[in-house]
Amino acid sequence: MSLRKHGGGAPAGTIDFSAPRNPLGASRIALKILRESMEASTRYPDPEYRELRTAIASYYDIGSAETMILNGAAEALTLLLAAFRPRNLIVLEPTFGDHWMTAEGLGIKVVPILYSRSSEEFTLDPHVYLELPAAQKAGSMLLLSNPNNPTGHLASRKLLVQILEGIPSTSVIVVDEAFMELSDPSQSLLGMCDERLVVLRSFTKTLALPGLRVGFLHTCNDELLRKLDAVRQPWNVNAIAERMIVHMLNEYPREYFEYVDEAMRMTDLERGFLTEALEELDLTVYRSRAPFILVHHEISHPKLQGVLVKYGVYVRDASSFYSLDAHYSRISVLTREDNRKLVETFKRATEGC
Ligand SMILES: Cc1ncc(COP(=O)(O)O)c(C=O)c1O
Question: Is this model's pTM higher than 0.90 or not?
Fold first, then answer.
């Protein structure tokens, strides 16, 4: 039996609302670049990923020496835990990831702290971290995702800087910005140089190419970078993904920017549509700034999922997230046509069909 619980794996014939991604879908240009990059598979990638790091650094205006290539943002957590070996992994929950399992595997203690919850939203109160005992924070790693999966909450840059200022010199904060480019990049910490800060980014989310497995991290902590480099495998990202991202960022930066910008606008519009329509069905929809929403419903899983699947829709049962239960679903924001279908199907389910 698998220890991992993620979205995806929708039954055939259903629309998959369970795996969060860019609602625009993969762009024609990205797919063309991908096809042109296939030939790269006849050689090994550069184990130092010099060209790719330079392309990323130039596009995002960050230092290439402080950038490390990842097999998707998800790879970072395993590498960071193995490299940093925190005394405690302090995690803002509920959130995405296999961190409980990875920490257990490495013998690292997890300290969950909670987002504040109201009937409208999950918010981040910096004091839940800042007021932890000093001994618990020393030598620890604080992990959070921004915007957060599954709640969709976006913490402001100002608030995160307040937390960063309270991180002891022996500790780090990891801000997983896998969805930031589809949310509000003005709240990003990417590029900020502080030895206590690590920022993660994902191309797979932004490009709607989750199978490509490519992302990066940025940190000005040289010692941590050295350790991360030591624990990663030499070719942690394949040559096709390496070539594709280099080609895209170097040759098509404007097209990439415009595609992400359009995706961001579509995400806002469609999330608004879904939120309003589901609230009309008396469901609780938490305020989100991500390409997904968290919904609370009276009817619980697996009964709800059974009805939804019968009518061609599949959502993420959110009960495996820490502090949530079978009355929560995470729903990806998709196209208007798909979103309408989701609303109709929820109407049927909540009316007891
Ligand atoms: C917050 C967050 N980080 C990372 C990931 C994984 O991203 P990647 O596909 O780049 O590994 C996800 C996937 O849903 C996510 O929600």
Answer: yes
